[in-house]
């Protein structure tokens, strides 16, 4: 089984019909006070763990979630159950709300986020040792930083392979904690900014590898695709073509799920990366992070359209 730890959150996503940069004076950044009048708002189900598990399910990979949520989680649980995501290890506490993310996106796809931690603050009280089924792969996605380090340490101790994705929580990691997360990971992933920040925190040069040669290092590059490094080789992964670009939120999580769906089927790293690229465009074509759907047949057909290769799932 795949065990996913990360945030389970309600998303409130708003669209600003302009550019943030036109309303921010760099010389006045020390007294920043801005308000953006948005013209569209959507509420949905999200969070890093929920997004990844949902996209894995679309690709035929059943995932289990390990998380703490609030008393308002029922509608989200119903959604996950309907989409065959295992919530048996999700703990509900009644004196907190479920995590909630508030995001504003401008016309250039720049984003400003506010995140209410809520029940996720208690996640570090959980342990992967409570999971009865055999864990084939763990996914440590961004959420409570203390819990992320705890889970990474447990995976390392139990010799369970895991993907480490510090993401938006990177500012909270010391070099020591970041190294704990990285050193035992089978797969390390981040966008180009996050990868550069990880190297800076660890005192590495730009040309240095973020991990050991046997580790899989993935750097996503947005519309330029991604790179995958492993055993001294670098694979350049082209982007898939989106039919439109409505909402970039959740694209990174979808990429991770696409990659893992291929990895668990023992496909080549190049194929896994292309599956990640394709999974990502499905979510940018819809508002929200878990509002898209597709069948196996549709995914395979579109994979061939984009990469001129046949995908065997």
In short:
This protein has one domain (2-22, 38-307): 3-Layer(aba) Sandwich (UDP-N-acetylmuramoyl-L-alanine:D-glutamate ligase), CATH 3.40.1190.20.
How is this structure best described in words?
With 313 residues, the protein is an alpha/beta fold. It has one domain (2-22, 38-307): UDP-N-acetylmuramoyl-L-alanine:D-glutamate ligase. The chain has 8 helices and 13 strands. It has helices at 48-58, 74-82, 145-158, 175-183, 192-201, 251-263, 269-284, 296-307; strands spanning 2-5, 9-15, 40-46, 63-69, 86-92, 99-105, 111-116, 137-140, 162-164, 187-191, 216-220, 226-230, 233-237. The chain has a 9-stranded mixed β-sheet, sandwiched between helices. The protein has a 4-stranded mixed β-sheet with strand order 3-2-6-7. Helix 1 packs across helix 6, helix 3 packs parallel to helix 4 and helix 7 (269-284) crosses helix 8 (296-307). The radius of gyration is 19 Å and the shape is globular.
Strand and helix layout:
Elements: E1 2-5, E2 9-15, E3 40-46, H1 48-58, E4 63-69, H2 74-82, E5 86-92, E6 99-105, E7 111-116, E8 137-140, H3 145-158, E9 162-164, H4 175-183, E10 187-191, H5 192-201, E11 216-220, E12 226-230, E13 233-237, H6 251-263, H7 269-284, H8 296-307
Helix pairs in contact: 1-6, 3-4, 6-7, 7-8
